[in-house]
Specification:
The protein is an alpha+beta fold. Helix content is about 35%, strand content about 20%. Strands 12-11-15-16-18-17 form a 6-stranded mixed β-sheet, covered by helices on one side. It has a 4-stranded mixed β-sheet with strand order 1-2-5-4, with helices on both faces.
Amino acid sequence: METTELLEAISRGEDSRHQFKRDVTNATSIAAEMAALANSGGGHVFIGVADDGEVFELDTVNVARLNQLVSNAASNLVRPPVNPHTENVAVGTGVILVVTVPDGLGKPYVDNNGAIWVKSGSDKRRVTAREELQRMFQSAQLVHGDDVPVAGTSASDIELSYFRKFYKERFEVDLDDQHLPLAQVLTNMRLLKDGLLTIAGTLLFASDPTPLAPTCHCKAVCYPGVDIHVSKYVDSTDIYGRIEAQFEKVLAFIIRNLRQEQNGQGVNTEGKTEVPRIVFEELLANAFIHRDYFVSAPIRIFVFDDRVEIISPGHLPNDLTVENILSGNSNIRNPILASYATKVLPYRGLGSGVIRALREYPDIDFVEDRDGNKFTAIIRRPSVAQD
């Protein structure tokens, strides 16, 4: 880091990626700070800078001491160990020690007391909420949301005729020809765990997932104008059921609230939707398959006069970015759902859904909100813009 770059960062003040320390004498404290950064996307600790941004230059003796302290804390007081990069940046007649902690691949990182820390603005906080812990384990691929058992369920909750049809299409053999108990088949497919249906098993094949997984549904609202209204709406519905049924009902909701354009066709023709149907098929399939099932919130669909928003619970997994998905990269958050979705949804699982949607209709924006823990696809409606 160059001196000018360092001074510019200091002038902006502390935030979730930049922490100031006038001095460090407590190895446990700096270990917790490094664990928090490793758990929260990485960042920098500037040692030799007060909270208000005043610079206190370090001499060679203190630099040597601090480098040793940081190294020992990273190796011995953080589990798994982190690998910070230290850099002595010249300022005035001394230096500032810049400690760079990369985003951790082995989350969650804990301190010497077993506490898990994350950044919260310029401060850090201890993680205690169950959902947040689950998401951290998920990001480390130690657990997957679709593989979590659903309390109170069993193999008897399966819609057997529906499952038989799927099994035949997926494996090209009749279920009865396997000569195995249904529970064993479901267990082999990772749809049943310890006698309980998983989230994947429930959402794919349960007769009625609604009371079993009540937060795994969709809320769809069509508003007049371009803003959310507290009490005014054109159309509104809550959509429950198996993933396939939810997908079809949400798609129908969107289509019926869009304009049909004649495009030179006769008056008796149905016309074409102002935005190609395949755009919503691709983006909705992604929302159902890749949403974060550790977040107790529905998928939300908002139709406005100028746009349609598809809001998925959970930001992009791990280090995936909007730029990555625009290039066709993917990171499968729910591998069980993804493996079976090709038979129930228009989903190919190749990371190409976003590219196909953009090819058909380029006027789409994607917004990742890590603080709000959501991901939004915004499809601009052409009809209003052209009126």
